[in-house]
Write a structure and sequence with these properties.
Layout lengths: L1 H5 L2 H10 L18 H5 L11 H4 L13 E12 H12 L15 E15 L7 E17 L4 E20 L5 E15 L3 E2 H6 L3 H4 L3 E14 L9 E9 L26 E13 L2 E13 L11 E9 L2 E8 L2 E9 L3 E11 L8 E12 L1
Length: 374
């Protein structure tokens, strides 16, 4: 191994093309249509803490907790793994020896995500003060790839786009119970065929290799929240439960628009999600503190350990700033946000487990979100 590391990057890359003694590790990511940078920083809790667009893809009932009416203009999120950032930097600076950019990233997850929400509209009191309404149009493009020792790239890549419409109602005294539903219409396309690094850099046959499945369809989410009269420790508590993709999340029950991509799109399986959160106003110098623990993606975590479904974290707000910490799938998360009224900025780091059990393969990611709103 030492003598290989002493070779030039180009020679090392050529050797990687012929090393086939060890196969690539099979990636088993949990795929999501929408990912909130705010939630990512606080342990990916969102079913009892979500606000505005987060509720369109988590707990539909929690939209009754939106603090105000809001019109979201373009909201853009970008994410990348540490290995992706390193590989891209190497590729840009490697000159004609592009293969060397992947030499130090064999077996590491190369993941990236681009997400756009435009527009989004949320009404806290829709028609009457018992109802809440929301809608948003989203587009997501994500890839989770791995370079094998045989210098082939095995990608899990998909795009998804479409509208989500939410309706929720408050019940009981003090509006302690809420029930909500969200309808999704979505086009999906994905690629999962492996191709070589050489093909990727030269562009040869990659367009044919990546053709996978596509579909156009619809599905629904159903959720509820309940606020008991508990005040333990001065916190106000909330219980939440939701079922996402009630119809099974295949999203091909209308048509397959791209006839040259014959397969089915990636499926977001029906998932069951529950949790509890506590909110405390005026803690020390913080305006508010929220803490939560949730079990999410149960059912969409195919063959995976339940520990991949465990999330806990919180957020503390002070003036225009919010600080976030958490644990998601056994990995630490952190982030912060700035709310400038017409502009919001959120930054986070978190890790996604790509194996079936925590600790198998950590994909440490860095995310940023810029949103304009009225």
């Amino acid at each position: 191994m030492k003598f290989i590391l002493k070779l030039t990057p180009f020679a090392t890359s050529l050797m990687l093309l012929f090393l086939t003694s060890s196969p690539a590790f099979a990636l088993d990511p949990i795929l999501r249509d929408f990912h909130s940078v705010r939630a990512a920083g606080m342990g990916d809790v969102r079913y009892t803490t979500g606000l505005f667009e987060e509720n369109l893809y988590a707990n539909p009932a929690h939209s009754t907790d939106n603090p105000e009416n809001l019109l979201e203009l373009p909201q853009i999120s970008v994410e990348a793994s540490g290995a992706s950032i390193t590989a891209m930097n190497s590729l840009i600076n490697s000159g004609s020896h592009g293969l060397s950019a992947f030499a130090n990233n064999v077996g590491k997850p190369l993941s990236a995500r681009l997400q756009l929400l435009f527009p989004g509209y949320y009404s806290r009191h829709f028609i009457t003060d018992k109802w809440s309404f929301g809608l948003g149009m989203t587009m997501t493009a994500q890839t989770i790839a791995e370079v094998s020792q045989a210098a082939s790239i095995d990608p899990t890549t998909f795009i998804a786009m479409g509208p989500a419409i939410n309706l929720a109602r408050r019940f009981l005294d003090d509006d302690r119970l809420s029930v909500g539903v969200t309808a999704h219409a979505e086009f999906r396309a994905n690629a999962q065929s492996a191709f070589s690094v050489q093909e990727f850099l030269s562009g040869e046959s990659v367009s044919d290799a990546i053709k996978g499945g596509n579909g156009l369809g619809y599905d629904f989410d159903l959720g509820t929240t309940f606020k008991p009269h508990w005040t333990l420790g001065g916190f106000k508590y909330e219980l939440g439960f939701a079922i996402n993709n009630i119809l099974g999340g295949q999203y091909d029950n209308i048509s397959h628009p791209i006839s040259s991509w014959p397969g089915n799109p990636f499926q977001s399986y029906r998932s069951y999600n529950l949790g509890v959160s506590g909110t405390h106003d005026h803690v020390l110098f913080f305006r508010s503190v929220i803490l939560a623990i949730e079990m999410t993606d149960m059912g969409n975590n195919v063959d995976g350990s339940l520990y991949r479904c465990l999330h806990l974290g919180g957020e503390a707000k002070w003036a225009l700033f919010a600080a976030r910490l958490g644990i998601s799938q056994g990995y630490l998360t952190a982030g912060f946000g700035i709310d400038l009224k017409l502009l919001t900025i959120n930054v986070a780091t978190y890790a996604e487990e790509l194996g079936l059990n925590p600790g198998v393969m950590e994909d440490r990611r860095y995310a940023a979100q810029l949103g304009f709103q009225i």
